[in-house]
Amino acid sequence: xxxxxxxxxxxxxxxxxxxxxxxxxxxxxxxxxxxxxxxxxxxxxxxxxxxxxxxxxxxxxxxxxxxxxxxxxxxxxxxxxxxxxxxxxxxxxxxxxxxxxxxxxxxxxxxxxxx
Amino acid sequence: xxxxxxxxxxxxxxxxxxxxxxxxxxxxxxxxxxxxxxxxxxxxxxxxxxxxxxxxxxxxxxxxxxxxxxxxxxxxxxxxxxxxxxxxxxxxxxxxxxxxxxxxxxxxxxxxxxxx
Lengths: 115, 116
Hints:
heterodimer, A: 115 residues, mainly beta, seven-stranded mixed β-sheet, four-stranded antiparallel β-sheet, 11 strands, B: 116 residues, 12 strands, 0% helix, globular
């Protein structure tokens, strides 16, 4: 079990640029989640995938955000025309479903700084 | 709607004394409740989970939490704090609603400081 990995760990970009983050979940996990965590706050849900299907998106996920999981394995999160308010830690988590209760395993996160 | 409220944003204890981190929840369905810990520059780690079985849940590193439905609480405790327990702790709720995909709803966190 290699755990959830995310790449890059840190990203500094200028306002208006596009950025893309990658998440590799635990290999047998069929659900994948993206969260955003701003300073001093708990993570907030953005979106999740069951296999390759994106089944839910939070209202926090504006039109500038897009997420994909093309083969039901790794996922990418792209932010277009970044704004300073996008500066945050972006967390990926994965889990195995179905089941009445289960926990999500989190990656180390990608810290985005928009200057 | 589901949410959690962590009643203290900061808690300070002396090493060797008990720890109490308070959490109240609000949920329309049968909730699943978790406590996660986040050490500086490290990923979120699950401490323990409530699975609608035993109301007293034991987790890692000596932590426990008790689910009290009548009080809608899920407080985290540890009999004796260790310096390595200093971290950010998050109370988390998830509802058994397939439409939500079991998305986790995090509280704002409690920062635990342990002094020598």
